[in-house]
Amino acid sequence: MPKTSILFTDAANYLGTHTVLRIAKLHYTTHHLLLAVQDPHGEKARQLGRALNKLGDGVTYAFVKLNLLNLAQVRDCVEAVSLMLDHPETPPLGAIVNCEERIAFVPQPYTVDGFHPIYQANYLGPWLLTTGLIGKLVDGGRVVNMGDSSGQRAFGVLLSRKWGEVGHDMGEGHARGAGGVFELENASGCVWG
Fold this sequence. Notes:
By secondary structure, this protein is an alpha/beta fold. It is built from 5 helices and 8 strands. The protein has helices at residues 14-27, 43-53, 71-86, 117-133, 149-163; strands at 4-9, 31-37, 61-65, 93-99, 137-146, 174-178, 181-185, 190-192.
């Protein structure tokens, strides 16, 4: 049985799928995968499930609905994941991996919450999810944020305002952009723990 669970956001999108599959291939016997996706019954989720099933019987995973463009639904996801983690058969939460990669090249309408969709999906939604589940992390658990480095700086500021100073590793990645439109260059993830 896996020792810990890992929650992946945007698990069915490009960055999320590749991250999930990489972790699953390397550590499928030690981690239960909680896969937060916009449509747990959609084609992207089914494709991810088929790819995980091909890895063998040792892979355990569950899908949970997450729409980062609606903060009420982010709160619903926090509640659903909390209930899953309270179940004795679900291993404790060892990591939250936010795999946000949304960019926009054309103007987009604001979300129902009144925010630009890129800002809400890449920063506010993951921050709300992370703050809602941070108390569920095991001692030594990690929050991993993947995406462009300008987004990681914004996310780090949100976390540090809530919990004080946090460490971060920006690697060599950086991004240029304004108004929610980013041009990625050697993007790297960021780890706070």
